[in-house]
Design a protein that fits this description.
Strand content: under 5%
Order of helices and strands: HHH
Number of helices: 3
InterPro entries: Pkr1 (IPR013945)
GO biological process, one term: vacuolar proton-transporting V-type ATPase complex assembly
GO cellular component, one term: endoplasmic reticulum membrane
Organism: Leucosporidium creatinivorum
Oligomer: single chain
Number of strands: 0
Protein name: ER protein Pkr1-domain-containing protein
Shape: elongated
Structural class: mainly alpha
Distance between the termini: 51 Å
Number of domains: 1
Length: 106
Amino acid sequence: MSATTTPAASRGILQDVVSSIFEPGTNSGLVKAMSYSFYALFVTLVGMIFLTGGNIHVCALFGLSVGLFLSIKWFLVQIAEVEEQRKREKAAEDAKEAAAGKGKTE
């Protein structure tokens, strides 16, 4: 099966990441890849915290990485909310135009 006929739901994470290079915005595969990368970073840093006996520098890096992860997640939520609001406004505008067009023909 070629890549052009593969439905978006069955594409892999790697294909989503590569396709996101050429498409505007984000997709679910890109967000998953970012999340998995951060989870691996968290596991590594927690392991380093235990191995170094709670080194302040490793703890600071862990705190910074958690803050970065949460801020990126928050930003993605904000983008989704704005896109949803735009869709609602467009649907309301289309409905208004359709109602105005109906009134003119009667």
